[in-house]
Amino acid sequence: MASDPTVTVTRGYLPGAIGRIAELHGIYYADHWGFDLFFEAKVATELSAFLRAYDADRDALWLATVGGRVEGGIIIDGAHAAESGAHLRWFILSDALRGKGMGRQLINRAVDFCVEKAYHRIFLWTFEGLDVARHLYESVGFNLACQQKGAEWGTEVNEQLFECRPSAV
User: Fold this and answer.
1) What is the pLDDT of residue 56?
2) Is 135 part of any domain?
3) Looking at the DSSP assignment, which residues form a beta bridge with residue 64?
4) Cβ atoms < 10 Å from Cβ of 83
5) Alpha helices per DSSP H over 34-147
6) How far, CA to CA in Å, does 156 sit from each of 39, 46, 65, 92, 127?
């Protein structure tokens, strides 16, 4: 890949997005956290289910591509926004895009979408140790709401719930 790639951000599904987002998650979390097949399969299965039920009036997906190849993405799942808030999910960037401001651009689009939709709350689940991501979340108004030991990811980690009240941003 070129050292200064031209990145295109597209809203909505592109062919291959499910596999590529699952691949990016699988590789990153295996390499850095020892996650295994359980986690990658969970991402692929849940992302597929989400996209089958996708409603552009309540949900949003942005994909960052370079040369037509998906190199990152972020999703807002608004299916339960009225009750529990919008769920920010599957936020990932390839090594080619990390540290270049693309994460900030994607999360800003996601938060702006939630503001436009007047969602009262945005939340995401992550785990302790992802310090760069945590800094990004906090910089756009997310706060740590709770943490607990859990194995939702396929291995035991200190799970963390972050939330943002868009009206306060």
Assistant:
1) 95
2) no
3) 9, 72
4) 8
5) 37-52, 102-116, 131-139
6) 12, 20, 32, 21, 10
The DSSP bridge partners found for residue 159 are: 127, 148
Does residue 146 belong to any structural domain of this protein? no
The enclosing domain of 21 has a CATH number of: 3.40.630.30
| Of 150, 92, 153, 86, residue with least CA distance to 124 | 86
pLDDT band at 153 (very low <50, low <70, confident <90, very high): low
d(CA 108, CA 124): 15
**The token pair that represents 134 in the structure block:** 């945590």
The predicted pLDDT at position 168 comes to: 54
What pLDDT was estimated at residue 64?
97
Place of tokens 């089958």: 52
In which band, very low, low, confident or very high, does the pLDDT at 169 lie, cut at 50, 70 and 90?
A: low
Whether residue 166 has pLDDT greater than 80: yes
Task: Report pLDDT for 158.
Answer: 87
> What's the number of domains the chain is made of?
1
- Is 144 inside a domain boundary? no
Residue span of the structural domain in which 48 resides: 7-119
Of 72-76, 122-126, 146-150, which gets the smallest average pLDDT?
146-150
Q: Are 155 and 134 in contact (CB under 8 A)?
A: no
- Residue 106, domain member (yes or no): yes
